[in-house]
């Protein structure tokens, strides 16, 4: 009895080689068709602790695919929770990425560098009627969300006027409400099972 052979490019122990994941064929098709000329990925950790095995997998997938297809990967810290973040973790994460054998493209980026732009885009979405300020608690939002088998339902705050939403959003930014008391939500199709 012969031992099954294992192809390192495959997740199959026997038979023809198949892609290890579904991303490679999609990337290759997009590059071949000219839809995209370069793959650009990113690794966006929150610097509130040391990396774990799940982070290492994400690093290897994102940096590895970019490397395989001649692209680039950006290291962008999701520094949106300053109370839990520390320079020690930023330094450790940068060191771990290098230890895994990868280099990011260009300067390290931080989500906080883009807050003004993100705010402006949020205002545009509100003005276009595509986003609203929602007062549901996290528990209520979970109930409204739906599942793969059950459709969600619309928030009772979804149909506020654009003017009301702009006012609520400005007041959120000014810090009038406790963190998490109100959130900006996209007006997605809640009946769609996701």
CATH topology of the largest domain: Rossmann fold
| Secondary structure: number of strands | 5
Shape type: globular
**What is the total domain count?**
2
CATH architecture classification name of the largest domain:
3-Layer(aba) Sandwich
Please give the order of strands in the largest beta sheet: 1-2-3
Q: Which blocks of ≥5 consecutive residues have pLDDT under 50? A: 1-8
Give the class-level CATH name of the largest domain: Alpha Beta
Computed over alpha carbons, the radius of gyration is 22 Å
User: What's the tally of helices?
Assistant: 6
Order of SSEs: HEHEHEHEHHE
- Superfamily at the CATH H level of the largest domain? HUPs
> Which sheet architecture does the biggest sheet show?
3 strands, parallel
Fraction of residues in β-strands: 5-15%
Q: What separation lies between the terminal Cα atoms?
A: 46 Å
Mean pLDDT: 90
Residues in helix, %:
25-40%
Structural class, by secondary structure, is alpha/beta
